[in-house]
Design brief:
By secondary structure, the chain is of the alpha+beta class. It folds into 2 domains: about 140 residues, Creatine Amidinohydrolase, Chain A, domain 1; about 230 residues, Creatinase/methionine aminopeptidase superfamily (Creatine Amidinohydrolase, Alpha-Beta Complex), CATH 3.90.230.10. The chain is about 35% helix and about 20% strand. It is built from 11 helices and 19 strands.
């Protein structure tokens, strides 16, 4: 069974061997299951989650919000460590501007919810004939709030907002984004370490699957191999997308039948999570000998990534990166704006516990880049009726400027790249 060192060495060799053609695996029966890369991974500590709550309370004070309400999902996990799901029976977390957090959950779910809790003791239960919103009101009353402002995390559902409004008529409901985004947008060293691990897993999986592509494979065949590789390496919440030939000109795919053929573009967009933190990497290959046009477009997209990376300066508005890439592509005859053939989507998106998070590399985005922000860098070019090329690597902002989670490949002959 290969070791972590052997896997990374193999991926590195693939990335620097010029002219290495895509070829079929000798036989699926000869493939060995890779070893998980999760050894030494450190989950987010309780102390860090508690510090996040303190930071949220400081932001609530700044923005005049007396409490925020979180439903199950990334935000609840971020602040509390509670892993739960959504149903018609409300489980939520209340973070008050002062005092301890509280959990509201159905009575019969309390033992399971407590298993997932990392800190805090205040759990308010409700029975099936009772209102969970009365429990939320009780939390705020016990924290000394008779009226004020409640912030709702962006994904809170309408029936929850409506129930809170009815149960707490003396409170105003507002967006909790200034608080939740104010915390989650800037990643800590521990968060960056988990994102690096997720990216390491996805890149290593590409190194395994790239060498297994063969004529006649369907997207389902390739997706299954990439899913299995990321899972075997330790990735959780694995997702994959494979597009061949003309279908690669549709950024998020098409239902048209596809099979790998000689000289055809193979575009893959894949990722996974580690302890809730995401990777997102796209690679574009050509099976067999690429045409001159395929090589030219691939290299132009690779240069587009460099343009974006160099424009990502501390203090610059995030929209500047999108502007710089579109200006570069326009000089080469693509665009203007979102017109095809060209770049029909934003240059990049925020990433962290969710694959897409605010803010984005998109025109008009005024948020200034700061250390701890993380983004995808994916200035694809799409030629309807022919093919598309997307290279996607994620970056994070440091005190010295941008840094790669994965360094993009330098040529179509060596299309994998390496760890940052």
């Amino acid at each position: 069974m290969p070791t972590k060192r052997q896997l990374l060495k193999a991926a590195a060799l693939l990335a620097v061997t010029p002219g290495l053609p895509l070829r079929a695996a000798e036989s699926p029966a000869t493939e060995k299951k890779p070893k998980s890369l999760l050894a030494g991974v450190q989950p987010i500590s309780v102390a860090e989650r508690q510090a996040r709550v303190v930071r949220a309370q400081q932001l609530m004070q700044k923005y005049g919000i007396d409490a925020i309400v979180l439903e199950p999902g990334a935000a609840m996990l971020y602040f509390t460590g509670i892993r739960w799901w959504r149903s018609e029976r409300l489980t939520c977390v209340v973070i008050p501007r002062r005092g301890d957090i509280a959990v509201v959950t159905p009575f019969f779910e309390e033992p399971s919810v407590r298993e997932s809790m990392t800190f805090g003791e205040d759990v308010r239960t409700w029975n099936e004939h009772e209102s969970p919103f009365a429990r939320i009101a009780g939390v705020l009353k016990d924290r000394g709030f008779k009226s004020g402002v409640i912030g709702l995390e962006a994904t809170v559902r309408w029936f929850v907002a409506d129930g809170i409004r009815d149960a707490l008529p003396s409170f105003k409901l507002v967006s909790a984004d200034p608080v939740t985004r104010g915390c989650r947008m800037l990643k800590s060293p521990a968060e960056l370490a988990l994102m690096k691990k997720a990216n390491e897993i996805t890149l290593a999986a590409y190194g395994m699957v790239w060498d297994q592509l063969r004529p006649g494979m369907t997207p389902a065949d390739v997706n299954q191999r990439m899913h299995d590789a990321q899972s075997a390496l330790g990735g959780q919440g694995v997702w994959t997308m494979a597009l061949f030939g003309e279908a690669s000109a549709y950024p998020h795919g098409t239902d048209q039948p596809q099979q790998i053929r000689e000289g055809q573009v193979v575009l893959m967009d894949c990722g996974c999570s580690v302890e809730g933190y995401q990777s997102d990497i796209s690679r574009t290959f050509v099976y067999g000998e690429p045409s001159k046009k395929q090589q030219q477009i691939w290299q132009l997209v690779r240069e587009g990534q460099n343009v974006a990376f160099e424009a990502a300066k501390l203090g610059a508005p995030a929209g500047n990166i999108d502007d710089a890439v579109r200006a570069f592509y326009l000089k080469h005859g693509f665009g203007p704006d979102y017109r095809l053939p060209g770049l029909s989507h934003r240059t990049g998106h925020g990433i962290g516990m969710e694959g897409h998070e605010p803010v984005n590399f998109v025109r008009g985005e005024k948020t200034e880049l700061a250390p701890g922000m993380c983004f995808s860098n994916e200035p694809g070019l799409y030629l309807p009726g022919e093919f598309g090329v997307r290279l996607e690597d994620c970056l994070y902002m440091t005190a010295d400027g941008p840094a790669w989670f994965t360094v993009p490949p330098e040529s179509l002959a060596s299309p994998l790249g390496r760890l940052g």
